Amino acid sequence: MEFFNKAKAVRFKSHLDKYLVADDDEETVRQSRNGGASKKARWTVELVEGNPHLIRLKGCHGKYLTAADVPFLLGMTGKKVLQTVPATKKDISVEWEPIKEGYKVKLRTKGGKFLRANGATLPWRNSITHDLPHRTVTQDWVLWDVEVVDISLLDNEYISSCNSSFSSEYEFSGSNTRSPSITSESRENSLQSAAPEIRWPSIASDRSAHRSGMEFFNKAKAVRLQSHLGKYLVADEDEETVRQSRNGASHKARWTVEFIEGKNSVIHLKSCHGRYLTAADDPFLLGMTGKKVLQTIPATKTNNSIEWEPLKEGNYLKLMTREGKFLRANGGTPPWRNSITHDIPHRTATQNWVLWGVDIVDICVSDLDSGSSLLSPTSSFSSLADDYMGSPDTGSPAIQSGRSWNASMKQVSGMEFFKKAKSVRLKSHNDKYLTADDDEESVIQDRAGSSNNAKWTVEFVEGVDNVVRLKSCYEKYLAASDEQFLLGVTGRKVVQTFPRKLDSLVEWEPIRDGMQIKLKTRYGDYLRANGGLPPWRNSITHDIPHRHHDWILWEVDVVEILPESPPKVSRSESLEDDVVSSSSFRLMSPAFPSLQSGGSSDDSPRKSEGRLIYYNIADDYGNVNDAIEGPSFQFKGHGLEELTQKLEEETGLENIIVCSRNRVNGKLYPLRLALPPNNATMHVVVVPSTSRVASDFIPVTPTSA
């Protein structure tokens, strides 16, 4: 609904780059590529009283977009979409529910079908129906770009070809409707006064009025850029090249935004390596027009090759160089596949190759104290906003209590599904339920929704209003592990776990999508119900969907209702000490020798003094003598990168790998996540880069906490 709450009139553009238009016969609806500048492509938005999630769309002929019950072709599933004037306002056939899908929307009828722009040969070409897309290739046929049309100039304008004025009220009187009465004298005066200066806004005029795309970046400290292929702009590890990757959760996909003094319409984008996105002058391939895009450190910041001008294009943007070329995400076969160039697209098929979606990773906080520490240029996350990053779908950060974020950046929370729930069931797109397996570790899908294994107890997190924990019938938490489901595949395992400390691995952020929800992890992945053949069938992973967007949608069935206010469990609350932790961190309670010896509590470590770090150095084969307690130091930092630097100073080693020992199998694993909360004491193992076992670990540049 955010596309329509403040819109008086809109245009809808289909996946074919054609506009939804009301035909001149005042009955049919079709697609037109040249209709964007026509009044027939403009639809007045009317909100439905009593239901804030529904709208009506009125065409220029004063008739409403209607999901008819007449089949488009006999024997086919799709049904006609027409322009009609319903007998009463209670006619649900003229009501549409907008459902956000990334930067586009679906328009759903009361019958659960979607407004669909058909392609292929006649009679399907340019036709509009309402239907459910069952094939993968037609999933995007129900997706629409929404362009808000500013018709403030037209409020008092007489439109001779329309049967009614653009009014939010419409008199329903059956099929016989009347336009507002206009005398010939007033009509003549109106036309004479309006003719010299008032005209229908064209696409060009709309774009020029909203040409700058700086609104995407004004509050942003770091962003991700997603191409038309659903891949992210990433800075490669060679610290020179730039490419596309589906791994949007990687730190390499985050770009720090820098504003240029004296230039309000251009920005710099700095990679995680501290280098700037640069429009080079070298051709990508000899004889081709596209030129390379690289990461560089220019001699001066006045070098205009690192300046990019954001230009808004609907809900997307283009990044233009000073030479008038655009950042372009290429497709096709190698060497073009996943490459990035700057070029001017000349073919119709490549026009959307220069369009980018913007996900805000960090935003500027307006109410911080002057002494607060902000995000450093090479960091990926702010230390003040480390718990939840922006949603890939909404491009907005989660709202934490006690922090006043910019109101315009709020996302649609799905907490209303859980606020009064004591326990719930979650049903996937396969009509199967999220189920805790009998092995008390794995999580699967199962059709037996009445089983106790399909019931999940809801817990709320103290101090965070938009996050829940889900506990299985085995008293274990639903957790997003860091272990890959299959080697070489992006999806990671979702398990039942009983961690020693309740941390962000067992916390899920509900995001509303129509009457369903998505459950998002801290790093922007979503709880996903997989389909297909084994081993995918009935499996559960957490991932960012690039094709099957409905696989991350869940229906919430409330099983038990809370009689009173829900219990909130603090993040720092410890679980039973005798339970084996499945977390990769080895967390232990701080030691207080002064208290044990009868001393004063004033000698105990205070929270302001940081955390206590115990470390051992592994030998050439990765062995550590756990019987000997290693040296320790007080660590006041926040992030894993700071801890690594501190350990290098303490040990005198370089390029070390910081590991922890898994208490289940005794193996060493490199630390990949943020440090545990509340300054808990840590026991870590330092593996030198010269060790024989160092090659077994894949170093991951950590995010700052």
Automatic annotation (TrEMBL):
Residues 166-194 are annotated as: Disordered. Residues 166-176 have a biased composition (Low complexity). It comes from the Eukaryota. Residues 1-144, 214-356, 415-554, 610-687 form the DUF569 domain. CDD domains: beta-trefoil_FSCN_ACP-like. Residues 177-193 have a biased composition (Polar residues). PANTHER family: ACTIN CROSS-LINKING PROTEIN (DUF569) (PTHR31205), DUF569 DOMAIN-CONTAINING PROTEIN (PTHR31205:SF89). This is Actin cross-linking protein.
